[in-house]
Amino acid sequence: MKFNVTTIFPDLITSYCNESILRRGQEAGAISVNAINLRDYTEDKHNTVDDTPYGGGPGMVMKVEPIQKALSENKWKKGEKKKRVVLLSPRGRQFDQRVAEEWSDLEEITFICGRYEGVDQRVADHLVDEEVSIGPYVLAGGELGALVMIEAVSRLVPGVLGNAESIVEETHAENIKSEYPQYTKPADVNGWAVPEILLSGDHAKIAEWRKEQSV
Ligand code: SAM
Fold this sequence. Notes:
Elements: E1 2-7, H1 10-17, H2 20-27, E2 32-37, E3 50-51, E4 61-62, H3 64-73, E5 83-94, H4 97-103, E6 108-112, H5 121-126, E7 130-133, H6 143-154, E8 188-189, E9 192-193, H7 203-213
Helix pairs in contact: 1-6
């Protein structure tokens, strides 16, 4: 699975993705993360990616042309089989575990991260497959959202997690609202004891108890 991120802060993406499971997933060849700097696709000496809004109003709006150039020079385009071009937007379809599962079968996802007051509407209208939100709140930019989605999708890509079973019974997996409670050693902390059943060694009973505890 290949992730591309179009952003004015590529280091935010690479620094996070070069740690922990995303680093291991890349080293294993299961995923790759390619963050590109939108300013490299501008043509003026100030590398301008934004301009004032038509009709007036506060703040700046991200321009179409650098985004269009970044997409076309990298051959990332909407409507391709097994690929998706996604604009981060608080107005978009809400990302959740179902979307992560749906996307985990794709070959390539390209995220476009907005900043400032947002992105010229013509990007949503003409250049992307869909607008996606990571939640009902407004962030300063799309980078955190892209990272959230990269991580959630990557965990479902074979070869990224050490133990593939760990995603099967997880919170938000199909038919599971929340995973069973997990405990580790010691068995007693400050008088807070681990449920007896987990110390019993009876694997059938433990599986049954865990099933009851998952919602
Ligand atoms: N003025 C816009 C509005 O009211 O919808 C908000 C723009 S926001 C400050 C700047 C950028 O951050 C957006 O273009 C988007 O790329 C990203 N962003 C902010 N909140 C987001 C969210 N909940 N999900 C996805 N992206 C978000």
